[in-house]
Amino acid sequence: MTTLQSINPYTWEINAEFETLSDAEITEKINVAQKAYLEWKDTSWEYRKSMFHKLADVMEEKLEDYAKIQTLEMWMLYTESVAGLKGTVALCRWFADNAETYLWAQDFELNGTSWEYHYDPLGVIFWVGPWNFPFNQVLRAAIPNILAWNTQVYKHASNVPMCAMQIELFFHDAWFPAGIYTNLFMSSRQSEHVIQNPHIRGVNLTGSEWAGSAVWALAGKYLKPSVLELGGNDGLVLLDFTNPDELIPKIAAARLWAWGQKCNSSKRFIVLEKDYDLFVEKMGAYIANQKIGDPMLAETNTPPLARKDLVEEVDAQVRETISQWARCIAWWKVQWDQGQFFEATLLADITPEMTSYKDEIFWPVATVIKSKSIEESIKIANDSDFGLSASVWWDDIEECIKVARQLDWGMVFINSWVWSKPHIPFWWIRKSWYGKENGPEWLRAFTNKKVVIH
């Protein structure tokens, strides 16, 4: 067994420590989840709906306290943590109120043949979670799929064990039966032990390419269905820049919200030649004017990164891009005096062979690419191994829509930074990988669409 440590990224103090489980202990927890599934799959809609409304009430009752746990453990600005948990409460209630509509049996008749679709649960689902939204990402997966009669065992990221434990307590305090949601303190090397278990009927992961590739290979090896969401290198296509003072704060938020540590934040800013110099000047000045400090304070907008190794990784990516002759406008600076900070950075004159053009930089680094025409902007935006989301900006909505229809991405937003809502499908292609979250499809992701013909 090993020890998981929760370390405050601002003070470097150890918040708490937890021992990982042995293989035998993990197996026993999976057995409990299987037993719970056999009873849960026969519960009524009314019962499940009431349980998830109770879960939302539990989260809402001490929401500010739970938001503080998230901030103390992994960097998130307290104001953003509060907002994120409020969104999670709303997500819980939306799925509770709408699950029956999307999972109810459907009747059809054609050419004298009648049939029905039934959405049957699969069983115990294994989830592997990321550290960047330790409450929302987990519950966005758990809530709809437990509503679909499955039960869940969850391996959270190793640096957020307090959040992991708190999520299990949410279910406990809402009086869910034991085994409906189970937290597993475990190491990555134990993933095969979990996935090969015959009670595990599906695998879901949100995380890095490396982690996704490893888990996908195991899911394939043991013939388990899977959904993977692995991030992106999203393009923001700016078609006009006639009102910079109004646009810059909105466009900068597309990169800096959650301090850039979002899979669907805009990372490559594609700007027409006529606006390029002014955009670089204005965006660079805005990005440089961010305040480092305690993430619990409202005036802070530059929180520390979640782990020391993340600072080292983004520093290496930025240095490599600059060595390839990118121009650094808002000069990056690593600060270690208190906390592990990486200041917001703007890299200009980016070309296809450079690191930040090709690779996802998951942190507050915006890269600017010059385009000669709208057609070239579309080509640049589509020139990526990833395919999560993109956005198009201009007052001419019809032109934005025309461009959006030519962008080969899972989601395209018009005049908005990218966000997610429970009722809107969250889709992706290419190396952002496969499957769908949110919306009706997410409720059905780990179900068997059974056909009954009569």
In short:
The protein has 454 residues and is of the alpha/beta class. It has two domains: 249 residues, Aldehyde Dehydrogenase, Chain A, domain 1, CATH 3.40.605; 192 residues, Aldehyde Dehydrogenase, Chain A, domain 2, CATH 3.40.309.10. It is built from 15 helices and 21 strands.
Query: How confident overall, as mean pLDDT?
Result: 89
Number of strands: 21
| Low-pLDDT sequence parts | none
Oligomeric state of the chains? single chain
- Helix run count: 15
CATH superfamily of the largest domain: Aldehyde Dehydrogenase, Chain A, domain 1
Shape, principal axes of CA atoms: globular
Biggest sheet overview: 7 strands, mixed
Radius of gyration: 23 Å
CATH topology of the largest domain: Aldehyde Dehydrogenase, Chain A, domain 1
Distance between the termini: 54 Å
Strand order of the largest sheet: 12-15-16-11-10-17-18
Q: Which second-level CATH architecture of the largest domain applies?
A: 3-Layer(aba) Sandwich
